[in-house]
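README, section 4: Worked example with a bound small molecule

Sections 1 through 3 covered apo chains. Here we extend the same pipeline to holo records, where the ligand is supplied as SMILES alongside the sequence. The molecule in this example is zinc ion. Nothing else about the input changes; the structure line simply encodes the ligand pose together with the chain.
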Amino acid sequence: MVCFANRLRHNKGGASCGRRDTALRKRHARTPLFAQAPTTRPGVRVVTPSDQPSSIDHLRALVGFDTVSHRSNLALVDYLEMTLSGLGARIERIPNETGDKANLIASFGPEDVPGYILSGHTDVVPVDGQAWSTDPFTLTERDGKLFGRGATDMKGFLACCLARAPQMAAARLNAPLHLVFSYDEEVGCLGVRDVIDWIGEWAVPPLGCFVGEPTGMDIVTSHKAKRAFEASVTGSPGHSSRAPYFVNAVDYAAEFLVELRRLGREIEETGARDPLFDVPFTTTHVGVIHGGEALNIVPEHCRFEFEFRALPNEDVDAMADHMQRFVDTALLPRMQAVSANASFRLESTIAYPGLDSAPEHEIVILAKRLAGRNDHRKVAYGTEGGRFSKTGGIPTVVCGPGDIDRAHKADEFITRNELSACEAFIDRLISHASR
Ligand SMILES: [Zn+2]
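The generated complex, written as structure tokens:
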């Protein structure tokens, strides 16, 4: 692996590796290699490496950073960088366009041989409207449960990585271990895209990646793909008593959604199935709809959001194309026959690929050995694993502490035993990489 900080210093005149990489270099060049001292919420103790902190110490600090996706994660990233650079890790920081968020890669072990990635996201979902019995940004222990936003999804995993980092630093690693921390996972696995481009520039590609999303340390080999859209329908307003002379945006949105529902039923009845998934087929879904002002006005606007959750090898683009064709051929001509300014626009908002690692792949076999089990399963929710695998070509398994059922809810928690199980997994990975 070539440290990008070195490339930046020694390879300024080097050939461009594509526009995206050039953009990354520019962004990186604006960012100091070493961050300033981290800041946290008042009362949160910043743990230094000499403290030999436990995973719970780290989790307490990590939960204290309010990293809801729309906020900056830089204070948390500073904490990661300070902790890991203090242990001798090679640090690569990849900022976003506006400089208010960053991904971080911390590597231990040799640079010129392939190794393993442990990957987790730094952002969390909001707490607005949720009835928490504790302060969500203060880790609180009760009956052996550690409550806090992100405790399970997925600061618990991050805390385990940090707690075992001194062991990574001390080990005689034959294969390097790369800790990858990303931003904006919860809003479409966005930050990790730059990480994958970045890793694509490494001299040797990694052997595999473990994404530590909560699986109860089960081995998850597959998850579904997601495509989400926002639809904006513009009709023409008028008095409802003369409705046929105007374009009713809600009516046309309804026709679209009936077709989406029909497509969903067709896929359920005749499409591909995989019984290892909880919902064993591709699904369609509408989650939000707004339209109309008053009953006696033909509605001018309607906005709605819908999604496909597809089995990893299904052609989800074909489904989206079908709905676009339906708009172009069945809806728009009738709308514009009444009002030339009528429109029906679909905008893609989230798109990430599914994960589908073969059970016989080395990374799956290794993950099972490290977790001490022989079975595997598949999940409907998405992770960054799809991007690592499908976009980056990096063999990937999802395996992490905690239960996904507790994620995104009030009183999210993780247990001490769950953290211990994850640390044991990482310890076995360190041993495996040291052989
Ligand atoms: Zn997550």
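What to look for in the output: The radius of gyration is 24 Å. The chain has two domains: 4-220+355-434, 225-352.

Section 5 describes how to batch many such records.
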